[in-house]
Amino acid sequence: MSLSKRLAGISGTEASTARNTSGTEPTNPSPNAPVSEPAMRLRSVTDGDPWAAANTSSNTSVQEGLGAPSDASQAMTAVKERASVALYERMGSRMTESSMDELELHQYVRDELRSIIEEDDIPLSAAERTRLVQEIIDDVIGLGPLQRFLEDDSLTEVMVNGHERIYVEREGKLLLTNVRFSSEEHLRKIIERIVTKVGRRIDESSPLVDARLADGSRVNAIIPPLAVGGSSLTIRKFGKTPLTINKLMSLGTITPEMAELLQACVRARLNIIVSGGTGTGKTTLLNVLSSFIPTDERIITVEDAVELQLQQDHVVRLESRPRNIEGKGEVPIRELVRNSLRMRPDRIVVGEVRGGECLDMLQAMNTGHDGSISTVHANSPRDAISRLETLVLMAGMDLPLRAIREQVASAVNLIVQISRLRDGTRRITHVTEVQGMEGEIVTLQDAFVFDYSAGVDSEGRFLGKPIPTGVRPRFVDRFAELGIPISPAVFGASFGGGGYR
Questions:
Q1: Smallest Cα–Cα separation from 18: which of 119, 118, 120?
Q2: Average pLDDT for residues 318-343, to the nearest whole number?
Q3: CA-closest candidate to residue 125, choices 201, 2, 40
Q4: How far is Cα 51 from Cα 155, in angstroms, rounded to an integer?
Q5: 238 vs 153: CA distance, rounded Å
Q6: φ, ψ at 17 (rounded to 5°)
Q7: pLDDT tens, 56-69?
Q8: How big, in percent rounded to 5, are the helix, strand and coil portions of the chain?
Q9: Which pLDDT score, from 0 to 100, does residue 26 have?
């Protein structure tokens, strides 16, 4: 019995449109035969769908408008629903069998779907059948309509605002797509599939969760009642190939002179803080800085969710653990930082300090673990110092403010500020030396600053770049002691001198 007959009760109207006017099941037409109305409707969906044609152009793959679903789209949805139900009927528990690896499961599902569609005798072209099979696979064992975005390397972020609005970020710009989930229940099913794979749960009693996908992408999900307008899902994608310093220079994020300075700072085991706002590229820059660490050193990384992509061989990766359903078993970053001190580290790399672990990290920097690197959320180097002071206070220690500032000034040698400018590009706007204390104030001195005075071009892109201030940092003397060469031209003399306090 065909799929249309078996499942006519699910969508009688849609099933009836798959028949011809004589009431019999349609057969596959010849290439020159007239095409039935349902097939025309289905083909119009394929022709109008920017994702149907193998994504040959990333510029046309995301549409900025979002209109109401057409009749053709509803017809395709009905076909997908019928085929999905039939697939579940055939496969049953095999969908969750642990004995089948990912490739075997995908191939098995693909074969079953082809058989189901052939039995249904729906007049579709080969391209339409391939697309229909892939969309059902995405819904059944993938991430539904989001799967295509995750496979598009030109996108860096996927944001779902309820089941009807999906935004993506490309080249720093937000775009509204014309892709949507069929319902709130469909979106919830995809969210639950994500969090279940990492041993988490999301429901009304625990309505928000941080997780990560198999490829390392970071996921945040929040559902009603906290998300009033419907479930929200945010996926931060990370490149499959780590960016290199040469790539950052080609993108204009960093200049060759600045790259030479930062490489020397890492080799000289200076303690570095990468500062910036959300989505500015702090983790990416941290990865690039870590690539300068010699291969013969032992590196311990501590993160909330594993994102760093260190290329050295001798790396131990530690990840915090949230509390379980019973509210037990939590292992915070602070405990991991303290534990890392007992692991004979040459370098400690903390993905991000956002709480009391800041105090432990500063103590590590001050007690022989030079060359440590971390990131912090702040809008300027001065704000980064204030942020570190606040985070130390979150450790619950009743320390006087001057003692905290002395700890910060003694531990941190360099602050690298990265920002996302309004043209969507990420640029390093400050490379700032922490010189010490002067009275009650931590003294800072810029080595590089971004030149905003160069203006913008006709497309709104900033023409400026980071330029040297002409001031030679004090830590350059350390380079000479360690035999690390650096060109005097790195610091220039064209921008004048002076820092700020």
A1: 120
A2: 86
A3: 40
A4: 14
A5: 9
A6: -70, -15
A7: 333 434 443 334 44
A8: 40, 20, 45
A9: 41
Token pair in block for residue 345: 């580290």
Nearest to 356 by CA among 323, 332, 328, 329: 332
Q: Where are the alpha helices (DSSP H) in 313-428?
A: 333-340, 357-366, 381-393, 401-411
Please give the biggest Cα pair distance in the chain. 93
Cβ-Cβ contacts under 8 Å for 104 (sequence gap 6 or more): none
- Match 């490829």 to its residue by tokens: 215
pLDDT tens digit sequence for 418-471: 999 888 889 999 999 999 999 899 999 999 999 998 888 888 888 888 899 988
**Does residue 121 lie in a domain region?**
yes
Identify the pLDDT of residue 79.
64
CATH assignment of the domain containing 431: 3.40.50.300
Q: Which amino acid is at 89?
A: E
Quick check: 499 pLDDT over 60?
no
For residue 207, is the peptide bond before it cis, meaning its omega torsion is within 30 degrees of 0?
Answer: no
The answer to whether residues 245 and 263 touch, using CB atoms and an 8 Å cutoff, is: yes
Number of domains in the chain: 3
Tell me the residue range of the domain where 400 lies.
Answer: 245-491
| Residue from 334, 284, 282 nearest 304 by CA | 334
Instruction: Give the pLDDT confidence of 144-187 residue by residue, as tens digits.
Output: 888 889 888 889 899 999 999 999 998 888 899 988 888 899 89
For position 410, what pLDDT does the model report? Answer: 93
Judge residue 381's burial from the number of C-beta atoms within 10 Å of its C-beta, 0-12 exposed, 13-18 middle, 19 or more buried.
Answer: buried
The answer on 98 and 152 residing in a single domain is: no
Which domain-ending residue is among 213, 238, 263? 238
